[in-house]
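User: Can you recover a sequence for this backbone? Please restate the input before giving your answer.

Assistant: Of course. Working from this structure:
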């Protein structure tokens, strides 16, 4: 069985990583164009660095751990006979820490820095600033977070689109479906004939596009769904 799972900020919320939208969300009080756009970075790189430094410090500070939903997806990925493509809009590393490999980070990775001079992408756990030096070319004032900003293209979209085109199941977990192209994946999946499921605390703009919606916390519902899927396969022999 070929399954594509798309995760969003909601899957990491129970691990203590704030979501983007809603009260207390990351975008509250921030103009997206100031902290998450190429123009914002050109205008005030230190401000953008500070925003991502704060998020990186939270991730590496020792308090954030993968939760039951991340662990259940890692289990699913290890199951023989299941071909899982795990796509995330999240820039944290909680899927990897839970044991998933080959995670497709559509919006990049917070624990990597990219050199705008030589293009090298390197692991990065410290603060970034204009004074940071590129480990590959030795350049200064040329590193940026390896994340996708508004107005930039998501990473690996072609491969993800191909996986959706082959999928038997498409499942979206903890994403508000407000940011394209990820918001269109459910429509692509249905067109390809996949059965589609949404797992979210709340109803979202594209909830109606799914065959099925389950409301509740990812930490409860994702392990439940994985268990259900694996037992149904076992029952079929
Ligand atoms: P959002 O913050 O837009 O949405 C989070 C979703 O998770 C909401 O629909 C919540 O209802 C749901 N949610 C919250 N807690 C949950 C829980 N415990 N269990 C299940 N669901 C829960 O985050 P995303 O949809 O991931 O892009 O945002 C998509 C993109 O918008 C981000 O990758 C980012 C942002 O702007 C960039 O920075 C390029």
């Amino acid at each position: 069985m070929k399954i594509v799972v798309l995760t969003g900020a909601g899957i990491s919320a129970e691990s203590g990583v704030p979501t983007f939208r809603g009260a207390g969300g990351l975008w509250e009080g921030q103009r997206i164009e100031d902290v998450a756009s190429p123009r914002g970075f050109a205008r005030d790189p230190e401000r953008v660095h500070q925003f991502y430094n704060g998020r990186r410090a939270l991730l590496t500070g020792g308090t954030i751990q993968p939760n039951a939903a991340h662990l259940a997806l890692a289990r699913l990925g290890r199951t023989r006979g299941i071909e899982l493509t795990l796509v995330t809009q999240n820039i944290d590393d909680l899927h990897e820490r839970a044991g998933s490999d080959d995670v497709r980070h559509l919006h990049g990775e917070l624990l990597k820095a990219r050199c705008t001079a030589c293009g090298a992408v390197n692991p990065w756990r410290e603060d970034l600033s204009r004074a940071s030096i590129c480990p590959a070319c030795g350049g200064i004032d040329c590193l940026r977070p390896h994340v996708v900003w508004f107005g930039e293209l998501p990473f690996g979209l072609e491969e993800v689109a191909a996986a959706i085109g082959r999928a038997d199941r498409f499942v979206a977990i903890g994403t508000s479906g407000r940011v394209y192209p990820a918001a269109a994946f459910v429509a692509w999946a249905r067109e390809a004939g996949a059965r589609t499921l949404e797992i979210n605390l709340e109803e979202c703009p594209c909830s109606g596009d799914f065959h099925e919606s389950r409301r509740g916390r990812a930490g409860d519902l994702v392990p439940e769904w994985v268990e259900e899927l694996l037992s149904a396969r076992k029952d079929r022999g």
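That completes the design. The longest helix spans residues 218-235.
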